[in-house]
Amino acid sequence: MAQNGQAGAERPQTGAPAVILVEPQLGENVGTAARAMANFSLGELRLVAPRDGWPNERAVKAASGADFIVEAARVFDTVEEAVADLNIVLATTARRRDMIKPVYSPETAAREMTARLADPDVRAGILFGRERTGLGNDEVALADGIIMAPVNTAFASLNLAQAVLLVGYEWFKLHTDGALGRETPVEAAGREGLYTAHTRAATKEELIGLFEHLERELDEANFLRPPEKRPAMVRNLRNMLSRANLTEQEVRTLRGVIASLVRNHERG
Amino acid sequence: MAQNGQAGAERPQTGAPAVILVEPQLGENVGTAARAMANFSLGELRLVAPRDGWPNERAVKAASGADFIVEAARVFDTVEEAVADLNIVLATTARRRDMIKPVYSPETAAREMTARLADPDVRAGILFGRERTGLGNDEVALADGIIMAPVNTAFASLNLAQAVLLVGYEWFKLHTDGALGRETPVEAAGREGLYTAHTRAATKEELIGLFEHLERELDEANFLRPPEKRPAMVRNLRNMLSRANLTEQEVRTLRGVIASLVRNHERG
User: Which spans of this chain does the record mark as coiled coil (chains A, B) (predicted)?
Assistant: First the structure.
């Protein structure tokens, strides 16, 4: 899935949080995480003591195209070093720790980081733990807050790339005003669609022309009977056709449909 | 990452949209998609002509724990059959098609489906295309709307499980977050209004019956020509009629309209 939007392109890299993978075990997972970052315009990858060493060919391969992120990744020995230059650090975790820290969802985390990043001197990062064991308490303790995604408690585990995907998605959504998201009412989306089809919405006059054409033929066919029911039947037909938000081109098509159904059989 | 929440548990399965994978190529991807469904409490998986056949051991393996979803999956030969019993179908797609349909984000799609599903007789499903080529235009034409995720246009491609993950995430978020849940889009309220008239939304099977009835008569009338233009003409007609969100009663009325236009002139 993708958006139509320039929104992605418009988006400056500056200020986006760094993704920090703590002791990732498999190169593949670093690569797919990088790929998820690229999906949502997150450019800065930091690695803390990747288990299988660095650089890692499998990471480049799994990034399938996002290798520019993998190759620009910076490697650190400890989490402390990896977050040293950052002002706000959030830690993704699968469970509440008994620590007094704010708990964010990916969505509220994106808002919090965005608010803090309004100050150009502020830099942010997000910690993601080891595939199996996640982040240790000492590592979480370094963070200003915790990010927990709403997930079915019976099936809470997300893989590394999926965790990065959800956090990146909410960040990107916020910075592309939700793209096709919350600010786009369904109707507007529909209308927008209308205009992309190189035509315009039908005028009421054109619509009524279609209605009367159909009704004329249906009277001809004795369909709109008995007379006392005619007004309601006409109303229902007009309601149906109105709901379709027909374009001017579509009105002409439908009139062609009616004419052809009738004409054919008049000939025959 | 996981939520603290009973919210997930509270959530009834009923009404959740079915996930429909159209000609998935690799069993692994069916399994990881099922896993993503489990993360967000989506239980119903439908498969259209899985390339490597079914059942598929690799799908079960890749589901790592979500095999109950894989094993309950229903397999269909065609998309038409897979959506026959559904009232609202949304199609995930990577690009805007030259079709006139509402375009949703995963977030607005969750709201739209939730509003429509307020009617207990309404059932929803989401189409996901083939790993490489996505959904064909004729498949998208069967849908009531399109879902496009806000993604960096330079890196738009999401794998199957990730696409399911984002759609499932927004669905789950809406249904485990009172604040979001309370907002009901105006447009959706209008739609609900449709079904208060002692009738229900048409099923796709009923709609397809109407489409085929009309197309039969138009072939009869030599309207759908030249042959090379027929597919596009059919698609446009189906899109127009789909947009009207017809009720079952309205579908019967329109079939009566077609029959009467034809019959009358056959008599004459």
Answer: none
